[in-house]
UniProtKB/TrEMBL annotation:
L-homoserine binds at residue 192. This is Homoserine dehydrogenase. It comes from Streptomyces laurentii. Its cofactor is a metal cation. One of its GO terms (biological process) is threonine biosynthetic process. Keywords: Amino-acid biosynthesis, Metal-binding, Methionine biosynthesis, NAD, NADP, Oxidoreductase, Sodium, Threonine biosynthesis. CDD domains: ACT_HSDH-Hom.
Amino acid sequence: MMRTRPLKVALLGCGVVGSEVARIMTTHADDLAARIGAPVELAGVAVRRPDKVRGGIPAELITTDATALVKRGDIDVAIEVIGGIEPARTLITTAFEHGASVVSANKALLAQGGQALHAAAERHGQDLYYEAAVAGAIPLIRPLRESLAGDKINRVMGIVNGTTNFILDKMDTSGAGYSEALDEATALGYAEADPTADVEGFDAAAKAAILAGIAFHTRVRLDDVYREGMTEVTSADFVSAARMGCTIKLLAICERAADGESVTARVHPAMIPLSHPLASVREAYNAVFVEAEAAGRLMFYGPGAGGSPTASAVLGDLVAVCRNKLNEATGPGESAYSRLPVSSMGDVVTRYHISLDVADKPGVLAQVATVFAEHGVSIDTVRQTGKDGEASLVVVTHRAPDAALSGTVEALRKLDTVRGVASIMRVEGE
Ligand code: NDP
Ligand code: HSE
């Protein structure tokens, strides 16, 4: 039975994502109504610049007073696609206080203040859904929160930033340097004018915090996520990676420790074997590899950004939240009952690929090997290439705690015979 009174939606933000949400809400109005069981009506659109032309949106719906819009009292769902921390946080809380559920795409806010927002939603009997906050169009939050709710997830490893994947893919396939690849990403509209959040790994770290929290039913704050960007990755690293049958990706990795007693979350560039499913994720695509006890290995793949793909995820949430409203119910809230401690990067067990410039004389290799042994790090392979009395030494280790590996590198830097550490990269996915 179709309810005739429409559910009213406040759209907070009408930029890259919001304008696509408005367009699809309008063009697919009948389908959305049929799927929800009631029509959905765009009741207002809050923006910063009211005079900007916004095709298809009636001028009388546009407002610069987002607070007044969410305080109207007749709004059923607020869609927050403004981004950033404030005013988004206050608007979401105000929406809950005035009887609206919220759909948001704001990973920065959810990673930093998700706990308080979930608590506010619960207090006011409203939903907080945010499928679009991680990996754009790819259904990931709901599969983790609902489809895998009966399983035990041990690892989530993914490419969750399209801009950096585009840059690394260009460097790999065309031999371009970082700056050249970044320029191309900017020209194509992938990278923003200030690409810091993407290339320094902040965007991926926010997504890792959200994924780890959901996967392990525990609170993971943004500060708990170890983060390294990809600006130091060079063309030479790709040459080394290729020699090992690997490529380089910026990975977000959330893991349960082997004893199950703690978790870790980290973002950094890493070499992965070409045979790993994540190695073939090209251009600005995202993909997330989930390892669960009963389900085994699952891979989620698709467009991780862009107005229309992200709007798809927002609208999926809108339909779910509206259905809940009609049923006078709410969907799953925060699940943090596990309360597992989040360990530091030093406890992560991984492998290193270390490239050293060393003096090419007797005993150097033995000296280098001794440093590894002293730190309890086992060497897997060593490759040496001579060049004018010096040599380039590439050492790949077996798995060891990250603290032992970084201690090894620190000690290597102090050896007279080590002229420099050309690159250090973790090796994952084997
Ligand atoms: P945009 O910068 O394109 O749009 C932001 C919108 O918010 C604009 O319409 C802007 O108004 C409006 N706005 C800004 N400040 C205010 C304010 N104080 N009051 C009312 N409106 C305001 O951002 P995106 O659409 O790209 O991103 C939106 C959210 O979606 C972010 O959280 C982002 O992280 C997330 N996201 C984005 C993806 C993408 O590919 N773009 C992918 C996944 C998630 P005006 O138009 O007047 O400037
Ligand atoms: N800047 C992000 C990216 C947008 O490149 O993936 C999606 O969150």
